[in-house]
Amino acid sequence: MNPAMLVATCGRVLRQLRSDPRSIALILVVPALLLAVVYFLYENETLPPGAPRTFDRVGLMMLAIFPFVVMFLVTSITMLRERTSGTLERLLTTPIHKADLLFGYALAFSLMAALQACVATAIAYWTFDLAIEGSPGLVVMVAVVNAVLGVALGLLCSAFARTEFQAVQFMPVVVVPQILLCGLFVARDDMNEILEAVSGVLPLTYSVDALFEIAGNSEPTAQLWSDIAVIGAVIVAVLLLASLTLRRRTS
């Protein structure tokens, strides 16, 4: 890869995002608003003295799920626009390497994902008083990694869509099953053998596991780093697979 090309691609994508207020709002504002909805859902719940709030568990998980979903949507639609407008085809006729182009996109959206994670986590902790054992920094780290996972999957799925509507249609195939089987609604140990096995190969499962580790431990654990490593490996593998979808001709 050429670092100069990668940085140039990243800068171009960030400039495009800066001129698109709707995408910026979707990235930075929507996750915080959805988190507020979750908080107010449980605001009036009745709990025994000393019992943890439901929001402390559900809200923590949403800090990973919302960025994953939002970045998947934004990335897949933005990349699809690049393909259908001919921008991607023109770029691929230049000396730029596919890896520089793809990782430049990933870097740009990852920077936005980091900002998104900081905003959402700050609101969760200092507005809604999220109470867990782990530090906000660890939560931000997992949220960012999860958002980057959404970026990688969005880049990959954009290759198989011809319209923005088709890009959104990948959500029930790629995103929803991971949310259902990640262990948020039903503990993995309580699933039947088939669903538990499927859950074990879905990357979002490891994000939820990592957040459970943060929720129950004041210091990082070996399991937390193991979960992060698995997600990181999946991100790299998906980006490499996505690079194979970059063609010099628009179909």
Automatic annotation (TrEMBL):
GO cellular component terms, alphabetically, are: ATP-binding cassette (ABC) transporter complex
Question: Where does it mainly reside?
Answer: membrane
Report the protein name in the record: Transport permease protein
Q: Does the keyword Transport apply?
A: yes
Q: Which UniProt keywords apply?
A: Antibiotic resistance, Cell membrane, Membrane, Transmembrane, Transmembrane helix, Transport
All copies of domain ABC transmembrane type-2, residue ranges: 22-249
Q: Which InterPro entries match?
A: ABC-2_transporter_component, ABC2_TM, ABC2_TM_bact-type, ABC_2_transport
Which PROSITE patterns has this protein been placed in? Answer: ABC_TM2
Q: Which Pfam families match?
A: ABC2_membrane
Protein family according to the UniProt entry:
Belongs to the ABC-2 integral membrane protein family.
A single GO BP: response to antibiotic
Identify the species of origin: Arthrobacter subterraneus
Q: Where in the cell is it found?
A: Cell membrane
Membrane topology of the entry: Multi-pass membrane protein
GO molecular function, a single term: ABC-type transporter activity
- List residues traversing the bilayer: 24-42, 62-80, 101-126, 138-161, 168-187, 228-246
Which top-level group of life is the source organism from? Bacteria
